[in-house]
Write a structure and sequence with these properties.
heterodimer, A: alpha/beta, Rossmann fold, 36% helix, B: alpha/beta, 8-stranded mixed sheet, 17% strand
């Protein structure tokens, strides 16, 4: 069963969707941390499906939108990593209070993976495990990839249109059609790649990247196509990968 | 921000976000905003969120909804994807039950424009509709341009554009396709469209057609709609905008904000009234 809810400040509430578990309640709740911009739109339905698969395994799962994104309150031009870490802290607290779980697993997709490990490393969220799904090598690489995609996307649009119908050049504070305020690129670029100082269990989830031997990993059958400009609006819905990840988490988390 | 998540439709399978002003005016029509393509109810570039909040600030109730099989709405088993307009009818039933508006306006972009047209055909509660990059019908001028273009392309050795689109419009299968492979809607025949427009005019619907540069191959000049359907020529409840520098994904904030201003102003000009 899904329960939509608003939480956080009354003036700028965050939107979330709580998937209550089917069957016996596990002691671990899972917070799904979405990616940014076009990647978040591409993966919205997919994260919903992942949440449903996880809840069928007994996990309560919370999906939510960062402030200034999706259905949450706020202006995307005010976005910052610090604000989104606060949002993640609020989301984790909500999941605990709504369900009574005593353990947390943050599962982050792409940018969400970088944010999830930052939240745990900085102590903003106390989680016993972190799953990093298609995590970029670093925040810097993630930003560079977005900028390359933006350039390729704009070139593609320009080629498709005649001179008279050319789109205006994007403003400095927008990227791929989304708000990209001054300083956000540097903010995200400061986020490190896979950290070695994370407490608890770390699970690296990817088809294409292999973590160091010491890190637990799940090898996926599906690619994310995160750098393919032709799939920039194509939904991310890797059903086989959802089942594999859910099974592994169900095997290892209380 | 005064927003509320609601479930509606049969078994509560459909989902949307109701946006309301501080003091709703029940004499105004409510605005329904269906999905654009596969993007969930927030819209491309968060357009639907920004539009709904601008409408609320202007005193207008809105519902951003996910059609069946998209966003947080369930798939409706066995239903033909072309019937997604039924989700708009279910949304009107849900808002009627709350008694918060007088008539409905649908603002649809791309696939949402198809939904808006079909819902307007089906449901007399609709008093107005916006169609962004919706149905396009050719005219002799377009056919001539196309012929000349083909001759030029052949002289240059360019390959002809493929119009082969195979995938369905909703459900999980749709999510496996890339955008370019999806056939979003079938344009009605000229005869069918003319009959629909005749009905819209008879019912005195307020209509706005917007065409962006995304459809420049098919919508080639500002008055094409009027040339294709002369019955609209003197219809005073029609607004026609040709905005070649815009796109229906609103990928530039400048065009997104300008579009929101246009849509809010247009909505405020419509009075809620029973369609006759």
């Amino acid at each position: 069963m899904n329960n939509p809810l608003y939480f956080g400040s009354a003036s700028q509430p965050l939107f979330g969707m709580l998937h209550r578990p089917q069957g016996a309640l596990r002691q671990t709740g899972i917070v799904l941390c979405p990616s940014w911009g076009t990647e978040a739109l591409r993966s919205y339905r997919g994260l919903r499906q992942l949440a449903q698969v996880l809840s069928q395994s007994g996990f309560p799962v919370l999906r939510f939108d960062y402030s200034g994104t999706g259905d949450s309150g706020g202006d995307g031009r005010q976005a910052s990593v610090a604000n989104w870490l606060d949002d993640l802290r609020e989301a984790a607290a909500l999941l605990r209070s709504e369900t009574g779980v005593n353990g947390l697993c943050l599962t982050g997709l792409r940018f969400g993976a970088l944010l999830a490990q930052e939240a745990v490393a900085s102590g903003a969220v106390s989680a016993q495990s972190v799953a990093l799904w298609d995590a970029p090598p670093s925040g810097e690489v993630f930003v560079a990839n977005l900028q390359q995609m933006d350039q390729a996307f704009n070139e593609k649009l320009a080629q498709q249109r005649k001179l008279r119908s050319q789109l205006a050049a994007p403003a400095r504070d927008e990227l791929l059609g989304h708000d990209w305020p001054d300083g956000l690129d540097a903010d995200i670029a400061r986020l490190p790649g896979l950290r070695k100082d994370l407490p608890g269990r770390v699970i690296f989830v990817s088809r294409d990247r292999t973590p160091p031997d010491s890190v637990e990993s799940i090898r996926l059958p599906d690619a994310g196509h995160w750098s393919d400009v032709d799939r920039i609006h194509a939904p991310w819905l890797p059903a086989a990968s959802f089942r594999i990840v859910s099974q592994r988490l169900a095997d290892g988390l209380p | 921000m005064n927003e509320r998540a609601i479930s509606f439709g049969e078994s509560g399978a459909l989902f949307g976000i109701l946006g309301a002003p501080e003091v709703p005016d029940p004499a105004r029509p409510a605005v329904l905003i269906p999905n654009t393509g596969l993007t969930h109810r927030v819209g491309p570039g968060r357009m639907h969120v920004e539009l709904a909040r601008a409408l609320a600030a202007a005193g207008v109730v809105s519902l951003r909804l996910d059609n069946a099989g998209l966003g947080d709405s369930e798939v409706v088993p066995g239903r033909h994807p072309a019937l997604s307009a039924l989700d708009l009818c279910a949304a009107m039933d849900a808002l009627d039950a709350r008694n918060i508006s007088s008539g409905y306006v649908v603002i649809g972009s791309h696939s949402g424009a198809h939904d808006a047209h079909q819902a307007a055909r089906l449901d007399p509660r609709i008093v107005g509709a916006v169609f962004v990059d919706g149905y396009i019908h050719g005219t002799p001028r377009v056919w001539l341009n196309r012929l000349l273009g083909r001759v030029r392309d052949r002289q240059r050795g360019d390959a002809e554009r493929s119009d082969l689109h195979l995938s369905p419009r909703s459900g999980d299968a749709l999510h496996a396709a890339v955008d370019a492979e999806i056939r979003w809607f079938d344009t009605p025949s000229h005869e069918r469209m003319e009959a629909d427009l005749f009905d819209f005019v008879r019912r005195q619907l307020t209509l706005m057609y917007i065409y962006t540069g995304d459809v420049e191959r098919d919508y080639q000049y500002a008055a094409q709609l009027i040339d294709a359907f002369p019955l609209l020529r003197n219809y005073r409840r029609l607004t026609l905008r040709h905005i070649p520098e815009a796109d229906h994904r609103y990928s530039r904030r400048s065009t997104r904000e300008a579009m929101i201003d246009v849509l809010v102003d247009w909505t405020l000009g419509i009075s809620g009234r029973p369609a006759g």
